[in-house]
TrEMBL record:
Record bears the keyword Metal-binding: yes
Domain Flavodoxin-like: 254-393
Family indicated by similarity: In the N-terminal section; belongs to the zinc metallo-hydrolase group 3 family.
Keywords on record: Cytoplasm, Electron transport, Flavoprotein, FMN, Iron, Metal-binding, Oxidoreductase, Transport
Protein name as catalogued: Nitric oxide reductase
Pfam families per UniProt: Flavodoxin_1 (PF00258), ODP (PF19583), Rubredoxin (PF00301)
Domain Rubredoxin-like, chain residue ranges per copy: 424-475
InterPro entries xrefs: Anaer_NO_rdtase_flvorubredoxin, Flavodoxin/NO_synth, Flavoprotein-like_sf, Metallo-B-lactamas, ODP_dom, RibonucZ/Hydroxyglut_hydro, Rubredoxin-like_dom, Rubredoxin-O_OxRdtase
CDD domains to which the protein is assigned, alphabetical: flavodiiron_proteins_MBL-fold, rubredoxin
One example GO MF annotation: FMN binding
Superkingdom, natural source: Bacteria
Length: 477
């Protein structure tokens, strides 16, 4: 089975709908992936990359149906990670003398994976080319650390196709091969997730390397990646996105993530988020529990953010293990141009917050003062959290803040408003923070909308924690 790409270029890769993880369990794939391998049938027959190790037998069998393997003149390995060179040993067992074109580092990493130093390696460097007949050449461009030392791209002249390997790819599986044939939002999301979680550490290398490639002034009609789609509709759109993402990217967005032994640190996170939103309604605020939510989504959100707030309960004097893992990963990703602050609830020592703050500072974030709360935050502590959020919103604002919205004072509400419950005093449960809004009542207990707190029956129970009216306080939020 093949898919026609252009002229004499054919996709002979493998789709993987069911794969869920990559790099061990560290990268969760939401929409599978593909391992793209390309067969070029000019006067010379050339294979660009292979597929993942687990598909090696199917791949070689399929390739043998596409071409007499003995007529294959060259194999180009742009990158040796096993999702691209995984079928090489099985293929070369059948055609052992076939030249393998790769970088000098490629020889090392291919041998490191396959242990066949006797293979017929042809080492190439940037600018080297291979004439494949019919007036066409393959030109090689080394791209070290995008994302391995051995990485390179291969450009096919005349057809103007750039085989970019991992760069510009995404873990995305679709029955269609080309970028204009798939769901655009899904594609964008997976491109951004891939860049955020895999390429961010090398972002500083992306711009000069892209500029070097653009400097060759080669036309590009398609970018044929090794995962996901082939970019044929406006193929350089992904190059432009990479240039944008590599330039210390940030949006007007704040990510808050935490882990909590009980709900105390979560209550802080919610109150901080509220304070941010109150003060700067323009900013997107996203809150995640690191032990519940998809780690790669949290990292993608951090990548998009101008700043992050990281919360942890103190457990055995240190931070929660999930937060420690997140901070280790974030340190490796080398985010730049971002603010950060730590927060958390504690019982008898607050060691976690200090450790989180230190780790964030070591990871290169521009730090804002931390916030600790002892035990479960009461109303006054929650107000301190909201005020912390307001302060963060002001300090991290990307442009002057909008004028504050006029406050609604319950006590000045009109008589008719109070009758409807609009503007009447809201009440908050001091235990679980559920808020009673007179305008809404509590239909679950037959308390009609418009019922002020004084008229709520004495046997009313908080829907959040089942405690009585006596635990409620006036709510000023
Ligand atoms: Fe670097 Fe697709 O592996």
């Amino acid at each position: 089975m093949n898919i026609h790409v252009k002229n004499n270029i054919f996709w002979v890769g493998k789709r993987d709908w069911e794969v869920e993880h990559f790099h061990g369990k560290e990268y969760k794939m939401q929409r599978g992936t593909s391992y793209n391998s390309y067969l070029i049938k000019e006067e010379k027959k050339v294979l660009i990359d292979t597929v993942d190790l687990k598909f090696r037998t199917d791949f070689v069998k399929n390739l043998a149906e596409e071409i007499d393997l003995n007529t294959l003149d060259a194999i180009v390995i742009n990158h040796a990670e096993e999702d691209h060179s995984g079928a090489l040993a099985e293929l070369l067992a059948l055609i052992p003398d076939t030249p393998v074109y790769c970088t000098a580092n490629g020889v090392d990493s291919i041998n490191g994976h396959h242990h066949h130093p006797e293979w017929n390696f042809k080492v190439v460097k940037t600018g080297d080319s291979l004439d494949i007949g019919n007036g066409k050449k393959l030109i090689f461009v080394e791209t070290p650390m995008l994302h391995w030392p051995d990485s390179m791209m291969t450009y096919l002249t005349e057809d103007a196709v750039l085989f970019s390997n991992d760069a510009f790819g995404q873990h995305y599986c679709d029955e269609h091969l080309f970028n204009d044939e798939v769901d655009q939002q899904e594609l964008f999301d997976q491109c951004q997730r891939y860049f955020s979680n895999i390429l961010t550490p090398f972002a500083r290398l992306v711009t000069p390397k892209i500029n070097e490639i653009l400097g060759f002034n080669l036309p590009v009609s398609m970018i044929a990646t090794s995962h996901g789609v082939v970019w044929r509709d406006n193929p350089t759109q992904i190059v432009e996105l990479y240039l944008k993402w590599a330039a210390d990217y940030q949006e007007d967005r704040i990510t808050i993530f935490y882990d909590a032994m009980s709900s105390n640190t979560r209550m802080m996170a919610d109150a901080i988020a509220e304070g941010i939103r109150e003060t700067d309604p323009r900013v997107a605020v996203k809150v995640y529990n690191a032990s519940v939510h998809d780690k790669n989504e949290i990292i993608t959100s951090c990548f998009r953010s101008k700043g992050i707030l990281v919360g942890s309960s103190t457990m055995n004097n240190v931070m929660m293990p999930k937060i420690a893992g997140m901070l280790e990963e974030i340190t490796g990703l080398k985010f730049r141009n971002k603010r950060a602050s730590a927060f958390g609830s504690y019982g008898w020592t607050g060691g976690a917050v200090d450790r989180v703050a230190t780790r964030l500072q070591d990871a290169g974030f521009d730090m804002t003062i931390a916030l600790k709360v002892k035990w479960r935050p009461d109303l006054s502590a929650l107000e301190a959290c909201r005020e912390h959020g307001r302060s963060v919103a002001r300090e991290w604002a990307l442009s002057p803040l909008p004028a504050a919205a006029p406050a609604v004072a319950a006590e000045t509400a009109s008589a008719s408003g109070v009758e409807n419950g609009e503007g009447a005093q809201k009440m908050i449960c001091s235990v679980c923070q559920w808020v009673y809004d007179p305008a809404e009542g509590e239909p679950g207990q037959d308390v009609a909308p418009g019922t002020c707190w004084e008229a709520v029956p004495d046997d009313f129970l908080c829907p959040g924690c089942a405690l009585g009216k006596e635990v409620f306080d006036p709510y000023e939020g």
